[in-house]
Design goal:
The complex is a heterotrimer of chains A (227), B (305) and C (471). Chain A is α/β, with parallel strands linked by helices and 227 residues long. Chain A has eight helices and nine strands. Chain B has one domain: Alpha-Beta Barrel (TIM Barrel). Helix content of chain B is 41%, strand content 15%. Chain B contains eleven helices and eight strands. The chains are: A alpha/beta (227), B alpha/beta (305), C alpha/beta (471).
Chain lengths: 227, 305, 471
């Protein structure tokens, strides 16, 4: 899932300077699960904004609108009236949701409440790590299901580098050395021979380097203009 | 096109025990410091590595500094890290470097940018070191660029890379060394050695795989100047420094002399390890001491081949 | 009639079954947890489904021993500490060899095991054995809080605190060679008797815990001695852990002693069902399936295993008989899908300070000291909560609209009846305290007080100090 982190509260307060009627739009999907932008978090931000305003003697109103998803029209349409009843929308969705809202309402100021970071999963309650780089050409078959692009700090394809120590990456001891993981996994699978092959130079054009990507399902999407 | 082989290549191929040192280019555009360091090392070593933005700190480019050093009559080993340039820029620099008369090339991954003074920079790593070694070999032997187009006059660098006998996981580091040699590395410089026992165990495994006969392996050593220096060295990820060395520095009255003594000892011991064809001395920031170490270890004058 | 399922691969199973039978409790033995296809139910009525059919049990007694790893030696291992039977050979009157007791070797030895080691050392020394006790830390009080190592020292045990140690087994001479370095000196010891307490999590024990939905704490997983090894109880009523290796005496006696408190508790559950201790006034939470994001956060956080997925609704639901209304799930749920009828924030009472009081001691302590706080006491609006861990960040931040200071008073570490509620209170409140600073609300304060009825005087001091500070 997409993992995002709430922006520091002082940054949010600064970006909302001057707005009197703030609508916070929480999102009920990924950012709820990673506890950054769900209704609960939105309520906490509401509390802090109101307390901060009171402290400064400012008169603002802050409401929270909980959208199950912010990347599909129908979910937003249902609560449109409440959503647009303010002079700014602070979207607590991932970057996708923020842009979706901003694109849907041409004249509305939509501000991001989160910093979207990575595709990942929970290792344990409350702890998520990055797993996928969205490279567009999955090579997991060759590395025992562990992605060297996303999980090796240097995205090395023939790793590890000389800085792997005690199964940790030299730049941050919280990061597992991806190549140690790949090595362990391939050893357990009895496929260590694959590591002697030189993993050839990558064609990065399928990843973001090749430009923004899109997916069109030809049998479902009726727009011929795409062809 | 026949070009004369580099001095380093000739030394190693003739079976001489080669000595290389290292220059860290300045963090400025002042070329004079490079010339000075080159003059210090002239005649004392067979070639000098010129680092490429080591530890992700912006320094004068390896190409630029190498050309300056060579103009002083010192042969250089240009270094190229994979961190900063994509395949277009890397290949372009290869062509330029060769045209400027540089003959030796060391390919390495490079420290992650978070270690240096520009931690916010974009992480390139378009190709990794092994992929690039393979690409350079392909260019030099077949005249073909990575993208497939032809190169009419390819370079002919004496190609090398690095290995770390002290990093984890050891079996994988050996596989990686073999891959580098398979990809075309002709000489290998190791991470600095202090822990001779562990190094000897590593070399045994290297010899088992016959790697010492397919590439010239040079053992790296570092010359420490002070107690702080050796303590910091011990902290570096991928280094193995037994406490006994730190203790020697603690107890020594003349720390610098102790540093030289330790380096000379290590050089002499590494000379006897089977499969080691040379020494790479890293005394970054203290280049003046290299000639002292080499002389005391008995390697002067350098043979001419 | 009460009956128990004895679960685990342990030679004491037969004896345990016999002791239970003597007291009129039926018992069945299952050595391998993978035979259990489904486990469900509540204390007093656990349902176990295996290939042989379905059975109901009043309770489950887990006997699988944690694995105590020994120092490796070809052909023979060192004497393991936890298994009393093996340590008996140390008392062989014919052998005069030195006995080496080596703790903290692979990892830090848990305290209860270290205490056992010291008691063993004392016994051996009193039996005229020459004992060297090596450990990385010198603990002056073990387990019961007594200075039992003084007894060992007086008996002649030599204590060595080491920084680094290595062990080698010489198969030819059948002897262990221990080299230890205490930072100054090198010590070399040789003996055929090496007692160690290397301690490994048993994979089987973890599998049992998972099947029974017994939660380990955040501290040490299943090894946390508070929940699985030290006390006879897990937080799941009716599921017990029996580890007679921890007591002294002969096997029969140890099993009987260890089963005593288990049987007493079983009787309290009774044959008719299970009387749950719910704090008065606390409601069982409910999950709104429309809001539930099905993220499993509550399932993972619940200390009592009282949540399970409701397949039909694609949401979680509360297992009422197991729920103890601690409401930690309510605080954790990121979708605000869990709530209680009658719950919700208390209206502002006009005070300057709000205090949440956990019902496991903080509330009682507060009641006792409130009169002595005088005028200051009138500044405090108090709310009773089931557990410190139930106060989430959004609740606290909402409070700061109306209050200068918010305090969460919860249990002292180890006293929380809901596993890590005190730790959660600290983390949740700590997060809010950080946010307050960043939100320009530096004049507001969020505090956590760890307290109990016995500590009411300390609580009074702390409250007085906090109230003074906010003035």
């Amino acid at each position: 899932m997409i993992v995002a982190e709430q922006k520091p509260i002082d940054e949010l307060i600064r970006s909302l300077e001057g707005f009197k009627k703030i609508v916070i739009a929480s999102c009920g999907t990924c950012v709820t699960v990673c506890m950054s932008g769900g209704e609960k978090e939105a309520l906490a931000v509401q509390g802090l904004l109101e307390a901060n305003a009171k402290e400064k003697g400012q008169d603002i109103s802050v409401s929270v609108v909980d959208l199950k998803r912010q990347c599909d029209d129908e979910f937003i349409d249902d609560l449109e009236a409440e959503l647009l009843d303010g002079d700014v929308v602070l979207s607590m969705a991932c970057g996708v949701g923020v842009q979706f809202l901003a694109g849907k309402y041409a004249d509305k100021v939509v501000l991001p409440g989160l910093n979207t970071t990575f595709y990942g999963a929970a290792k344990e309650l409350g702890y998520w790590t990055e797993l996928c780089a969205g490279c567009g050409n999955c090579l997991l078959e060759r590395t025992g299901g562990i992605c060297p692009i996303a999980r090796c700090s240097k995205s090395i394809f023939n790793g590890p580098c000389g800085g792997s120590q005690n199964a940790k990456c030299e730049i941050d001891s919280e990061i597992d050395c991806a190549w140690q993981l790949i090595y362990d996994k391939l050893t357990a699978m009895g496929r260590l021979d694959t590591l002697l092959e030189i993993h050839e130079i990558r064609d990065w054009s399928t990843s973001r380097d090749g430009g923004p990507r899109h997916l069109r399902k030809d049998d479902v999407n009726l727009d011929d203009a795409g062809k | 096109m026949e070009t004369e082989k580099s001095n380093l290549q000739k030394m190693l191929e003739a079976g001489e025990f080669a000595i290389t040192a290292e220059i860290g280019p300045p963090m400025s555009a002042d070329g004079e410091t490079v010339r000075e360091k080159a003059r210090e090392l002239k005649g004392n070593v067979d070639a000098v590595n010129v680092t490429d933005n080591q530890t992700s700190i912006v320094r004068m480019s390896s190409i630029g500094a190498s050309c300056l050093a060579q103009s002083e009559g010192v042969e250089c080993v240009m270094q190229m890290v994979m961190r900063d340039r994509n395949r277009i820029a890397l290949q372009s620099d290869l062509l330029g470097a060769w045209a400027m008369g540089l003959k030796n090339l060391l390919v390495l991954s490079g420290d992650h940018q978070s270690f240096g003074n520009h931690p916010g920079s974009k992480n390139v790593y378009d190709v990794d070191s092994i992929q690039f070694l393979q690409a350079v070999t392909n260019l030099q032997e077949n005249g073909v660029f990575i993208g497939g187009s032809k190169c009419k006059a390819p370079p002919h660098f004496f190609l090398g890379s690095t290995t770390n006998p002290f990093a984890d996981p050891e079996p994988l580091q050996l596989i990686r060394l073999e891959k580098k040699i398979n990809a075309g590395a002709k000489f290998i410089q190791t991470q600095c050695v202090y822990d001779l026992e562990r190094f000897e165990r590593f070399m045994e495994k290297v010899r088992e795989r016959g790697l010492h006969e397919r590439a010239y392996i040079m053992a790296g050593i570092f010359v420490n100047k002070s107690l702080k220096s050796i303590q910091m060295t011990q902290q570096v990820a991928g280094m193995s420094v037994p406490d006994s060395y730190v203790k020697r520095f603690e107890e020594a009255e003349d720390k610098q002399a102790e540093g030289v003594e330790i380096a000379v000892e290590l050089v002499k011991k590494l000379r006897t390890v089977k499969g080691i064809k040379g020494i790479h001395i890293m005394a970054v920031g203290w280049e003046e001491i290299v000639s002292t170490v080499i002389r005391q270890a008995g390697f002067l004058p350098r043979p001419v081949v | 009639m009460m009956n128990a399922l004895i679960l685990g691969n342990n030679k004491i199973n037969a004896e345990a079954a016999r002791v239970l039978a003597e007291s009129g409790v039926g018992a069945e033995v299952l050595t391998d947890v993978s035979e259990i296809l489904k486990f469900s139910g509540e204390p007093g009525g656990y349902t176990v489904v295996t290939q042989d059919g379905t059975a109901r049990f009043t309770s489950v007694i887990v006997t699988e021993p944690p694995r105590y790893a020994a120092v490796e030696a070809d052909g023979g291992t060192s004497v393991c500490l936890a298994d009393e039977a093996e340590t008996e050979r140390l008392f062989d009157p014919k052998r005069r060899d030195k006995i080496l007791i080596l703790l903290d070797f692979a990892e830090e030895t848990p305290e209860y095991l270290a205490a056992k080691a010291v008691r063993l050392a004392a016994r051996l020394a009193k039996d005229k054995k020459d004992v060297v006790f090596l450990s990385k830390t010198v603990k002056s009080g073990y387990g019961d809080g007594e200075l039992c190592d003084r007894e060992a020292r007086n008996a002649g045990v030599q204590f060595v605190k080491y920084e680094k140690a290595s062990v080698r087994y010489d198969a030819g001479e059948d002897i262990f060679c221990v080299e230890a370095n205490d930072g100054v000196f090198e010590i070399s010891l040789r003996s055929p008797f090496l007692v160690t307490a290397g301690f490994e999590e048993s994979g089987q024990l973890k599998r049992i815990a998972k099947k029974l939905r017994v939660r380990g704490s955040t501290k040490d997983g299943i090894n946390d001695d508070r929940f699985f090894l030290y006390s006879a109880f897990t937080l799941r009523r009716g599921i017990y852990y029996l580890n007679p290796a921890l007591t002294a005496g002969d096997e029969k006696q140890r099993v009987k002693e260890a089963l005593q408190p288990l049987m007493e508790d079983m009787a309290s559950i009774g044959a008719d069902g299970y009387v749950r201790e719910i704090i008065r006034g606390m409601e069982i939470p409910e999950v709104d399936p429309n809001k539930c994001a099905f993220c499993y956060s509550c399932y993972r956080a619940c200390p009592h295993g009282a949540l399970e997925p409701d397949g039909k609704a694609s949401a979680m639901k509360v297992i009422e008989p197991l729920c103890q209304a601690c409401a930690i799930c309510e605080a954790i749920c990121p979708a605000q899908a869990i709530s209680r009828t009658g719950g919700g924030p208390a209206p502002a009472g006009g005070g300057k300070c709000k205090i949440y009081l956990c019902e496991n001691g903080a509330a009682e302590a507060f009641d006792e000291i409130l009169p002595s706080l005088g005028d200051r006491g009138r500044l405090i609006d108090s709310v009773r909560i089931s557990c410190g861990g139930s106060v989430g960040a959004e609740l606290l931040t909402g409070d700061f609209k109306d209050y200068e200071t918010v305090i969460v008073a919860c249990c002292v570490e180890d006293a929380c009846r809901h596993m890590d509620g005190d730790k959660r209170a600290c983390k949740q409140t700590g997060r809010v305290a950080n946010l307050l600073n960043k939100a320009g609300l530096g004049g507001k304060h969020a505090h956590v007080i760890h307290t109990s009825l016995a500590m009411k005087d300390v609580m009074k001091e702390q409250l007085t100090h906090i109230l003074e500070e906010s003035n």
